[in-house]
Queue: 2 jobs
Job 1
Amino acid sequence: MSVEERAETSTPRHGPPAARPRRAVVLGGGLAGMLAASVLTGHADEVVVLERDRLPATALPRKGLPQARHAHVLLSGGARAMESLLPGITDAWLAAGARRMALPTALVSLSAQGWIPRAAERQFLISCSRDLLDLVVRQRVTALPRVTVREGVEVHGLTGDARRVTGVRLTDEGNGGPGTLAADFVVDATGRGSRAPRWLTGLGLPAVREETVDSGLVYASRLFRAPPGAEDFPLVSVAPSPGRDLPGQGMTMHPVEGGRWLMTVSGTRGGEPSRDNDAFEPFARRLRHPIAADLIARAEPLTDVHLNRSTVNRRRRFERLDAWPAGFVVTGDAVAAYNPVYGHGMSVAALDAVALREVLAGEVLADPRVARRAQRALARTADAAWAMAAGEDIHYPGAVGERPPAATRLLRGYLQRLMRTGTVDHAVTRVLLDVMTLSAPLSRLFAPDVALRVARGPGLRPPHEPPVTADEMARAGLAAR
Ligand SMILES: Cc1cc2nc3c(=O)[nH]c(=O)nc-3n(C[C@H](O)[C@H](O)[C@H](O)COP(=O)(O)OP(=O)(O)OC[C@H]3O[C@@H](n4cnc5c(N)ncnc54)[C@H](O)[C@@H]3O)c2cc1C
């Protein structure tokens, strides 16, 4: 790569915007970065993605994506958003070995309030390894016209001033160390570790307000070979106990390509899982139901246990700064990252890209107002996932973060009753799935038809045993209970 210093932007600084800026630069070649690049290709002559890692040509782990060793499901709200950005992507995932799993049909899930009934498809999820999911997206985006990816390039900061970002500072490991790259539009998609707040203060902008809620959750994951015939076992999940005097412990297991099951167990502060291979199954057995331990007792482990502690809910309020530089937008985990048990991060990254596309439609990238409008739109995209994750996590023992106002307790009471009603009332289950898969707004939970059913309550008791068929049990090598 030639590290090139172009004379500022293609427009006179702070002057009228050019009709079509020459170069958009995306920082980070993960999911949010690739999806942003797919949008920018319609607006710039050249879209350059700068990625610190070497990106593998197959679905292999890489250093910059350590979370890929852990259960990652793409919920239908995010899958539809990606499909609208990259038409045909769902078929490409399925052709590469991913599964499309109907919800709640292919779900064996013990929620905090009871087993969720399996019924006709309402929503769905894409189940495969995170490495495969990213690979397919990357292949599609890098095939788009005008997109290039420069690997082994680490970004250190921005150039420009508080009014306009004009490029980035970088180190190119393959081409002579430090340099700068001029850009008319820069999108930061460097994930949870993004240093955008520091870069912005370096340009003279005020500090960005950051909100965090940390339940101290630790993820521990292991890959297993599924018993022959059980490769398409439903997604299994056991949520933590609703009593909040105990740490929250749970698990998720989903099928991934190559006839494997990926199982993750997790625990909040005081109840964390360990890296010890021998402790993995006993941890799963102590959960509210031992179904996952029973399943893996008969499955062959393919890896050691991997831990991940990057689970704090953290949101940066870029949109609240009084001033915002033209030509700069932050997206994905760099804006808001969530406790992964809610499975929302990738979907929000996709919804961010859709929001960016909507803001940019008919606009000129170099228009100073466009970046600010986009940043505000991306903040709205994060709202629902943030409310669900941070609103819940703050109640775990030892959780650190801002306590919600007392009125929120009433809201929690309503939501718990709603979830309990959903274990028996299919209409409520459907609404819950719509909201949890980011396919419907949070406000849907409070619509009159739902509130009426919640007021009536579940009536019946939720089922005591997991909704697994005798055939599924037999194929997984388990005797019917
Ligand atoms: C344990 C765990 C499990 C999860 N499970 C789910 C799930 O089931 N469903 C779900 O939807 N989400 C899940 N998530 C969230 C999901 O992983 C993130 O939301 C998603 O990866 C965000 O994508 P991103 O592109 O913003 O960031 P990332 O995927 O982190 O990508 C950032 C990229 O930027 C690169 N980079 C970083 N710094 C620089 C730099 N200075 N210069 C150049 N390149 C740089 C990195 O190498 C990386 O490629 C989980 C997260 C964790 C931690």
Job 2
Amino acid sequence: MILNRKINELKEELIESTQEIMRIKSVEEEAKEGMPFGEGVSKALECALKISRRLGFNTKNLDGYVGYAEYGEGDEYIGILGHLDVVPEGDGWKYPPYAAEIHEGKIYGRGALDDKGPIMAALYGLKAIKDSNLPLSKKVRVIFGTNEETGCKEMEYYLEREKPPVAGFTPDAEYPLIYAEKGITSFDLVKDLKSIGTEDLCIKYIKGGQRVNMVPDYCEVGIWSKEKDFVIKALEKFKQTNEFNLTAHIKSDMVVIKSIGVSAHGSLPELGVNAIMQMFKFLAFLPLEDTDIYKYIDFFNKHVGFECHGESFGVALEDEESGKLSFNIGTVEMEENKISLGLNLRYPVTYTYNDMIVPFEKTLEGTEIKIENMSHMAPLYFPKDHELIKTLLNVYTEQTGERKEPLAIGGGTYAKEMPNIVAYGPIFPGKPDLDHQVNEYIEIEDLVMNAKIYAHAIYELAK
Ligand SMILES: [Zn+2]
């Protein structure tokens, strides 16, 4: 096929452009005039647009927020959305993180796979179409996002000024493609506490977990008791029937209890052990009945415990496309007269926010527990027989010779930020996901394969 021959001819140039853009450190920094996400990000955007012009495309820069390369004629356009910002490199690299050195057929550096290599592959895919003079009925835009890692604020800016594509994809996840992404909510459950203990025993503080979208592997409480060894004895007794990793030690006038769990991603709470809920189970074992803090803890022990799908909370939604709702308690903070838990619930794709939140609020009724700081992202879902899904899957099968089922996930990809697109590549099945990891790289062979797949996908969508 002509497009693959063109990509082979463009291979060296594709590698060089990928290296060029990888050498710019584009971690979000303090905003400057015309650089809403800082200097590095702005330079990376300028660089991508310069490469695009060199390849013969028209470009536009939307005030430093986002830019695009455009090719073809027509009112409607196909959109390929990638991003040029990266997460900080961290420590322990065997090659410099912003040098784009090539070793054993791999380009090493922050952003190689997430998402600079893949967006260059898409750009060169479009270049192959242009060089082949294949006729298109729609315009094509390769859109360079700049804030994917820290809030996607550039997409808001884009959609306020430009109409969305009629179809397209983001090369920012994995193959073969993701057709279903659960709805995601994060929020706090807050209660003001009138009583945090009795005359003999009181809970001074609770803290645990770092992020709502992780299963917490640590939780700590400080308990004051009149009788010094009362709490330690209670813990010994509790552990006779509960095999939890809980330890106690004395710190000035308090007993500090530490709970160790097993961390996991918040979309898969069943793979972890929740350190907060271990602690809650123990705290309910203490003679604190009738206190406000006890009522709060007891409520969560009854309605959550170690469940991961919202069964006892009355929100156990499930569908064939994306499975069960995931229910994660990720953080806890209690100080003085206030307690707050941070939750992350992801509901199946064929349901709405109200299907989840109405029964959720019903369970909260009469508890004086309030929902605060709600953030919500609606699900993404295309039926498997949707034209976009069929087209992209066919291209994948033709180019790789492998027929694979599309994926449904609990996470959210960049595709959620733009209507009418799905996540498509760049990671091939069985290959490691090096996004945000030390020693991130892209195999040159995969970079080229991505360019071939994206060239055909763009052509099929825009022809
Ligand atoms: Zn990414």
